[in-house]
Amino acid sequence: MPDKILVTGGAGYIGSHTVVELINAGYEPLIIDDFSNSDPAVISQLERITGKAVTFYALDCNNPDNLSKIFREHPEVTGVIHFAAFKAVGESVSEPLKYYRNNISSLVTLLESMVNHNISNLVFSSSCTVYGQPDELPVKEESPKKQAESPYGNTKAVCEEILEDSFNAKIPVKSMALRYFNPIGAHPSSLIGELPKGVPNNLVPFVTQTAAGWRNELTIFGDDYDTKDGTCVRDYIHVVDLAKAHVKALNYLESKQNEIAHFEAVNIGTGNGNSVKEVVDTFEKVNNISLNYKYGERRPGDVEKVYADASTAKKVLGWKAEKSLEEALEDAWNWQKTLKKPE
């Protein structure tokens, strides 16, 4: 019988792609998702991609009774991948308490429940936002963490501190925080992808929605940064590569059988920086589309440039990004073309 892995927020963008990779690797994922920022239709799409029935619970993982219910029903659960969190940076600025309650409380609740049910492996969804505007590039795991630009970013930093404190207290959980850079793209089947509710906060969904006519134009925020073309630079990673990193992290934690507790953080990126203008130009080229875009003022809170040193992931996890920016932007557009514009 395959090991079962609980995936919180497993119907979301990164969670759903990770569910596919878990099944491909021989695990049996269980999804818990309250569908506050995801679509229940994703479940049937996952079943189409994998040819497997997917067990899911439409529940809030902030409730310890919900977690206990799942762990009691599935004693074969050996690990958890924790995605469930609110993630809109702007909203977190206007509604910080909502973010602190949900993002931090859910991790504490999960850790307590894992200890109560003797589940020891946890992969945590973190973010490169913990680095702020780094002093040196590329960013290494030991680079200093800076004051977060938003309450959302601060919740990721605090959650990492909770995991580290838990390790120092010898709480019997082995955890790894994956610090994502900028996930983009979609599954090559075009059956799952990024589908933000309302106006997208991220670049690529705004690009694809503009190309599809859902948005009148794309605004590139700032053209006077100290970069090669004046636009911000990020490390864009294909979501399928990112999903595979979670499976590698889980394998790594499972190999630590002689350790009671463990914690480390690992960058998950390509190691390359691409500017916003490069993303736009590449999207136009690979998809043979002309985008309607303009330059606007800098956006408050935007980091000028950040990209990963991904050597630790290769050394520790045996993982590296394999898909190109071109593949990611082609997959993102193919996914967009399957969607109907919301009313």
TrEMBL record:
The molecular function GO annotations come to:
UDP-glucose 4-epimerase activity
> Pathway of this protein?
Carbohydrate metabolism; galactose metabolism
List the cofactors. NAD(+)
* Gene Ontology biological process terms in this record: galactose metabolic process
Q: Which Pfam families match?
A: GDP_Man_Dehyd
The top EC class is isomerase
Q: Which SUPFAM superfamilies match?
A: NAD(P)-binding Rossmann-fold domains
Its GO CC terms are: cytosol
The record's CDD domains line, in alphabetical order, gives: UDP_G4E_1_SDR_e (cd05247)
Top-level taxon:
Bacteria
NAD(P)-binding domain boundaries = 6-331
Q: EC number(s) for this protein?
A: 5.1.3.2
Which keywords fit this entry according to its UniProt record?
Carbohydrate metabolism, Isomerase, NAD
Reaction it catalyzes: UDP-alpha-D-glucose = UDP-alpha-D-galactose
Family per similarity comment: Belongs to the NAD(P)-dependent epimerase/dehydratase family.
Record note on quaternary structure: Homodimer.
| The protein's name in its UniProt record | UDP-glucose 4-epimerase
To which species is this protein native? Answer: Mangrovivirga cuniculi
Give the classification, highest ranks: Bacteria, Pseudomonadati, Bacteroidota, Cytophagia, Cytophagales
